[in-house]
Amino acid sequence: MRRVPRWALISSGCAPVLLIGGWIIAGMLEGPGYDPVTQTISVLAAYGAPGSWVMTGALFGLGVCHLFTAWGLRAAARAGRLALAAGGVAALVVALLPAPSSGGSLRHGSVAAVGFALLAIWPVLAAEHGRPAPWGLRPVPSVSVTALMGIGAAWFLFDMQRHGAAGVAERLVTCIQAVWPLVVVVSCLLHRRRDEPAG
User: Fold this and answer.
1) Residue 66 main-chain phi, psi, to 5 deg
2) Whole-prediction pTM value?
3) Do 136 and 186 form a contact (C-beta atoms < 8 A)?
């Protein structure tokens, strides 16, 4: 198994901190008019939003983190690493194409959907078959987390149509997507340590 460098812990660990910290701080700057239960993260990064600079910076940082993690995650299958990197690029583009202050944006929505799909499928593409692999790169956990993200996406789309708890659904899915690379990196480092000879 190819070694995963320890610096990948920094890139993968910073991703959820940036995302969650970004939406918390931007939400505070937005004030009581913003409802995180029903409104999406994109509203926080929209043109003219008080905390747009915070949320835009967080999304940009998230994309950079995914790119570095994909580069360092040498134990994963190449297709998965490419999908994770492409998901990082999509996050960068979403940051550069914020939603308008009112109404929707086909460009923003399309890039966000592509990014979501890439970040949802990368665990399955990264899974290693046919040899002992770190826990985070085994088929069952990889398929399970992708299925969980798919269920979360269905919940998000359903609640967007009926004006329900779309903000909660989006935060759940994006949080899983931000945390999973860290889980994989940690499992790779622990697997390597267990395989190294003592003494």
Assistant:
1) -65, -40
2) 0.91
3) yes
